[in-house]
Amino acid sequence: MDILRQLLLVVHLVAFAALLGGLLGQAKAAQKAVHQSTIWGARIAFLAGLALVGVLESNDVHPNAGKIAVKALIGLAVLGLLEARRKKGLTNALYWVATGLTVANVLVAVLWASAHHF
Rounded to 5 degrees, what are φ and ψ at 32? Predict the structure, then answer.
């Protein structure tokens, strides 16, 4: 199970890199499109995060439920925003909301102390 956890963590991190990289790549664009790499990064990061929690729980490791809930809500908000604006693109304000929430999710992951580290 440890190999599965590690593989899921790598998938989660690579997907997050696609999400944030896709968003940052649009920073100077006048019309901020939602590229396939961005939306798929958000989808896969969200699902891999849920799978990580499932793998941990199945091994009797109980991650901080509050932290997981906050991360899931932020991830779902980013994913929902990107899905809703997939065809129209992001307004400047929505672009900064999506980018800010994405960075906030990383801050929660890194700075929220928990008894169990990934």
Answer: -90, 95
The single-letter code of the amino acid at 72 is A
Angle at 3 between CA 79 and CA 110, to 5 degrees: 45
Delimit the domains of the chain by residue range. 2-111
Which pTM was predicted? Answer: 0.90
Handedness of CA 108, 111, 112, 118 (dihedral sign): positive
Provide the β-strand partners of residue 32.
90
Q: With beta carbons less than 8 A apart as the criterion, state whether 64 and 56 touch.
A: no
pLDDT in tens, 50-94: 999 999 999 998 999 999 999 999 999 999 999 999 999 999 999
Within a 10 A sphere around the Cβ of 96, how many other Cβ atoms?
14
Name residues whose C-beta falls within 8 Å of residue 35's C-beta, 6 or more positions apart in sequence. Answer: 22, 25, 26
3-state SS track over 67-89: HHHHHHHHHHHHHHHHHHCCCCC
Q: Tell me if 75 sits within 8 A of 112, measured CB to CB.
A: no
